[in-house]
């Protein structure tokens, strides 16, 4: 800090310095300590509402670019960290028809809405997300020590402060985001514990999509694809496949086609839950329901009993999903988060999920389709000796 401040003074750059203090009772630390093998937080954990409020007001002391998109890693005065995704699209803008899912915009309001939906579905696998108005001059430019980030800031002809991502692809001034003149709304996602404390691994989704303009994956052409997956470790026992199906239901509701990988905490082994991270490409089209997202459910014809009961509850008039979401989102400072057509699309998609389950039950029977929660894994990874024996 001292060396940087001296260099900044020579270059006539102002660097805002903040004193940092560690609070052992901080809400972000309690959130980290509450993670268990079943979910990121318990159903009635008072820490989560407090963390959401804290993220709206915590003082930013350092900023770094993150990844190849317009994302920023914000460090706070109390050592908390959050991922900031800026506003790229107006609420009522839909993804253009000619856009492929892998070049779609990342939407800050989708991250916020996905957290609320995940909590309503009782999955609790999305880290807490809150909306916030950020002063990108005072809270980003003047506190960053990263020269790459400083170099992408500029003032627009309308005298607004703007920045763009420095990366290998389509990151240039035409794709910048601008404040008005300095204030920019975005989503703040709470960081998970560091990898040295809570290691995670990223695993390709068995129902991954092709990321070429005309490619197709096996699951798209083989209706019996799930029979093959059911024979493979770790999907041949335990909860992993059921958790994939939960994730597909969640993604169908938000319209997310970009789930190429999933992450798990290694500490919990095969019994652990799947993290539902990076949901910013959801809620792009309220007028279209992409049924292919439900392939894990429709091809495997399996669902956890608790998931089905929650879906059936949210289809009841007194607990309609759109109404519960609307009420939940009213607590965010950037509300309205979703337009009314997006909220009503949730009800329509929920009915389609229930129809898929009904077809499975008619064909196979309830005992085959509806599965108890937390099935104990009995299979293990194949060793080289096992593979030689099988041959």
TrEMBL record:
Mn(2+) binds at residue 278. ATP binds at residues 85, 189-192, 263, 278. Its cofactor is Mn(2+). InterPro entries: FAM20, FAM20_C. Signal peptide: none annotated. One of its GO terms (cellular component) is Golgi apparatus. One of its GO terms (biological process) is enamel mineralization. It is found in: Golgi apparatus. It holds the Pfam family Fam20C. Residues 153-369 form the FAM20 C-terminal domain. Keywords: ATP-binding, Disulfide bond, Glycoprotein, Golgi apparatus, Manganese, Metal-binding, Nucleotide-binding. The active site is at residue 258. It comes from the Eukaryota. One of its GO terms (molecular function) is ATP binding. Belongs to the FAM20 family. This is FAM20 C-terminal domain-containing protein. It comes from Echeneis naucrates (Live sharksucker). The gene is fam20a.
